[in-house]
Structure formats: C-alpha cells, structure tokens
Amino acid sequence: MDFGFIFSSAAGELFSPTTAAYALATLGLAVHFGYAGLLNFGQAGFMAVGAYGFAISTLTFHVPFFIGLLVAVVCSTIFALLLGIPTLRLRADYLAIVTIAAAEIVRYVVTTNQLTAVTGSANGLAAFEGDFYAMNPFPPGTYIGMNNRDFFIRVVAWAVVAVFCTLVWLLMRSPWGRVLKGIREDENAVRSLGKNVYAYKMQALIIGGVLGALAGMIFTIPRGAVQPANYGTELTFFLYTCLLLGGLGTVLGPVVGAMIFWVVLSLTQGILYGLIESGTITWLNTVQAGQLRYILVGVALMLLMIFRPQGVLGNKKELAFA
Questions:
Q1: Residue 281: phi, psi to the nearest 5?
Q2: Where do the H-state alpha helices sit in 221-285?
Q3: Paired sense of beta strands 146-147 and 142-143, if any
Q4: d(CA 53, CA 194)
Q5: Sequence-ordered list of residues with C-beta below 8 angstroms from that of 283, at least 6 positions apart, any chain
Q6: Which helix (H) or strand (E) covers residue 77, if one does?
Q7: Can you list the alpha helix ranges (DSSP code H) found in the chain?
Q8: Can you give the pTM of this predicted structure?
Q9: What DSSP element (H or E) covers 81?
C-alpha cells in the first residue's frame, strides 16, 4: 500500500476547489444557523440554483461570465425570498421543513424531461466554463504540480473564500451582526427593543443563500458540468458536518471544517482501497468501502460532539442557543 500517495492525495484536498466550495457554502450556513439561528436544511438548493442559474444563462442566452454570475446571485436572492416570506414569521422548525422540501423540489424540477432542452434533465449541463477559463492570466505550464487551469480555479476559489470570510467577519462585528446574534439568543428580547426581527432574518437568509449560490458555481466550474444528483439532501448534511467540525458561530470554522471533512474522506478512502487491493481486507469491495468511509466520518463526528461539541474553533458560549 502506497502511503505516500494516500497522504499526498489527502493533502491535495486541503486546497481543492471542492473544499473551497464546501467552505463557502458552510460559511453561508454559519450566517444562517451559527449567527442568526435560522435552521436551513436546504443549502444544497441554493447551490443548485446558483449553478443552474449560471449554466443556463451561459448556454441558453450566451451571456458573458459576469452576467451569468449576476444571474446566479439574483436567482438565489429570489429563492431566499420565496422561502423566507411565508416562514420567517413562524417558528424555526417551519423554515427547516420548507427549505429541505424546496431543495428537493429544485432538484426534481431540473430533472423533468419536459425541461431537457434547458436543464439537461438527469444528464445535466456541460461546457459552460469557457468564459471563466478565458480570463486565466497564467500561461500554459506547471504550477505547484498543477496545470494552469487547475491552478487558476484554485486561486480564484480560495480568493473568493478569503474575501467573503473577511466580509462576514466585518458584518458580525458591526451593529447589524450584533443584532443578528441577539436574535439567535432571544428574538423576543430584540423585538422588544424595536428591531425588525423579520427584516434581519430575511437579510441573513439572503446573504447565506448568495454564498451558497457562489459555492454552487465554484463546485461546478472545475467539473465542467452541473448534474442534479450532486445536489441531494445529503449535500446539506455534509455542509452541517463541516459546520459542526469547525465550530458554530465562527468565521474560520467553516473553512477548517471543510478541510478536515475532505482530508478525512480522502484518507479513509485511500486506506480502505489500499487494504482491499493488497488483499488485507477481503470482505469489502470498493463500492462498499466508499459507503464505509461516510460511516467512519459519522462516528468521528459523534465522538467530536461528545468530547468537543463546540467544534475545533468554536467555544461553549456559542452552544447556548442550540
């Protein structure tokens, strides 16, 4: 078993575009749940809306990259309004029910055969990333073991993560952020001070949703395709895993949580596949090993909740509302 290859592959996941996409989407969940106390179980839906909004506008209407980016942001804002208007005046569990259902509705709508010409149905859409790579300033060659396209998407993805981590950090230190954290702790107390709790919740839902939409684009562009199977309910639960790993109510927690999540997944897969190929494990095949690694991550998360429930970067004060 080649441990060098296994560990180098796992290390490569630290700064992969997928990890960056998970970090950004989890940051959106941190705004929703960690800071505002909004129980959003449909972040995968926001990612799908962003990815499909960008892909459809690019392929169907042939708009430039930045117009497609704007379309993705506008679509995610509309999606947040549709979810928030009927639910944010109600208890938190209503938002959870609506968001998880809405995310599935989005996924089933884009797989409808009648919309194949627009959404590609179950096969999804492809070849929409050309304008993005056309902006690549790096000439052909090798950069830290990567070609110029892979290096470019990594630089852009993590630059976006850094920018939005900074913006969220500044927001949460502002009076607006302090009101948001007050709503998380006791919204009735905040309401008694004359604050429009509904408006603050809606703003938080939109901001976190936009982060999810941008994450959906980052998740999609390196693959060169957007497919509905990638935006199932399990994606949202993976994002919550990253959030819990890093710590609720933190800015860097989602980034650290996403890194840990993907490194652990890569390590467990590499070790299990190596043991199977070497004949050390004969009672598993590679398909079963792929499922077993999620079980192992789940067990690790359970242990984390027992021994360090605040996450890697969190603190126990942030658990008071949960």
A1: -110, 120
A2: 233-246, 253-277
A3: antiparallel
A4: 37
A5: none
A6: helix 65-84
A7: 3-12, 17-29, 43-60, 65-84, 92-110, 116-119, 130-134, 148-173, 175-192, 197-220, 233-246, 253-277, 286-307
A8: 0.94
A9: helix 65-84
The answer to whether residues 53 and 269 touch, using CB atoms and an 8 Å cutoff, is no
pLDDT means per 10 residues, the chain with 322 residues, are 77 92 97 94 97 97 96 97 91 87 96 94 94 95 92 97 98 96 93 95 97 97 94 94 89 94 88 82 80 81 78 63 48
b/e per residue 198-232 (b: at least 16 CB within 10 A)? eebbbbbbbbbbbbbbbbbbbbbbbeebbbbebbe
Grouping H, G, I as helix, E, B as strand and the rest as coil, residue 183 is helix
**Residue with structure tokens 């749940």?**
33
Distances 60 to 27, 52, 124, 215 between C-alpha atoms, Å: 30, 11, 13, 22
CA 3 to chain centre: 29
pLDDT of residue 161: 98
Is residue 123 within 8 Å of 115, Cβ to Cβ?
no
